[in-house]
Specification:
Layout lengths: L14 H23 L5 H26 L9 H22 E2 L5 H16 L1 E4 L2 E4 L3 H12 L4 E2 L13 H21 L2 H22 L3 H5 L5 H10 L10 H20 L5 H21 L13 H7 L7
Antiparallel strand pairs: 1-4, 2-3
Helix pairs in contact: 1-3, 1-6, 2-3, 2-4, 3-4, 3-5, 4-5, 5-11, 6-9, 7-10, 10-11
């Protein structure tokens, strides 16, 4: 009995286009931040964060290529290949410099960048024959830094709109909302995750209002700020560390909001970053359990070879 041919052409890999747009968006935001918006981190801290991220990414790739006896991933494709290779480290470096605050100290940005980039090599899981990292790099760098160094803080909310007045206070959040929605609808396909996270955020705020007598508008208001919007549309939707299926995305988003609410009720600072770290780490443990057969996942009975080859290139949905 011959296997049925897959219908339609194979799915196009949208990861690189998504990373390119992520990189452009965060570069524009940081440029405006240091010229118009009033970012309080120094250009020296930006340089340390970016330079460390680049250097760590290249060093790990060179050592890995030497160990595996292969050509480094940034060679053999001209300037475009080099730029595409740098996209993840570029995004992480700028995100760290934008979201961390350590006064005039440079070392925390060096530490955060090293942790962010190396976490992609250390914390991995095998899914459908491919090894993937499961911790969000930028978030991991931030969480590790503020946990180990209590004198380092996350950038305050006014950091993003300090020098804006009048209608611009509304225009910037609206711009982030529109561009983030378009990016995630067209490329990352993470709209279900975003909706689940936002819905869960409202639910956990309502639960805290009922049980702890908090003021409901004040509990919901944070998600409308620029910092939370950037987290919602540009960090939590990282294609490499979140599920691809609709069901998996909904579970991920609801889990994130639930852990966030629990940490907030326990009066733990920087709960949004610790919540994402906990959820990503839990997902990674589940991926390991599935790979070792400790947990069974639903698989098709018999997939045609062409379909199986295409599915092998996609991350498992958990």
């Amino acid at each position: 009995m011959t296997a049925a041919r897959p219908s339609g052409p194979p799915k196009k890999d949208l990861r690189v286009p998504a990373l390119r747009r992520f990189a452009i968006a965060i570069t524009v935001l940081n440029t405006l931040g240091h010229t118009v918006l009033g970012f309080e981190t120094s250009l020296a801290q930006v340089a340390v964060s970016l330079g460390t991220a680049y250097a760590t990414e290249y060093l790990i790739e060179i050592v890995s290529a030497w160990s595996d006896k292969r050509r480094p991933a940034f060679l053999g494709g001209g300037p475009v290949r080099v730029m595409d290779f740098m996209l993840p480290s570029h995004i992480s470096g700028l995100a760290l410099s934008m979201l961390l605050y350590s006064g005039d100290r440079l070392l925390p940005f060096f530490f955060a960048a090293v942790i962010a980039i190396t976490s992609k090599t250390v914390f991995t899981a095998t899914t459908k024959g491919k090894t993937r990292h499961f911790l969000n790099p930028s978030n991991t760098g931030i969480a590790a830094t503020v946990f180990l160094f209590p004198w380092v803080a996350v950038a305050p909310p006014y950091h993003f709109t300090e020098d804006l007045f009048g209608a611009w206070d509304w225009a910037l959040p609206a711009l982030v909302l529109c561009t983030g929605s378009l990016l995630n609808a067209k490329l990352t396909k993470k709209i279900p995750l975003i909706l689940a996270w936002v819905a869960g955020f409202i639910v956990q705020a309502s639960v805290r209002h009922l049980f702890y007598n908090t003021w409901l508008p004040a509990s919901i208001a944070p998600i409308t700020g620029v910092g939370y919007l950037l987290f919602t549309f540009y960090m939590v939707t990282d294609p490499g560390t979140t599920p691809s299926s609709r069901r998996g995305q909904i579970i991920f988003g609801l889990s994130l909001s639930g852990v966030y609410g629990a940490l907030l009720a326990l009066h733990i600072q920087y709960q949004i970053f610790f919540a994402l770290f906990i959820v990503c780490m839990t997902r990674g443990l589940i991926l390991h359990a599935v790979a070792r057969g400790w947990v069974t996942s639903r698989q098709p009975v018999a997939a045609p070879p062409a379909v199986a080859a295409e599915e092998a290139r996609q991350p498992v949905a958990v």
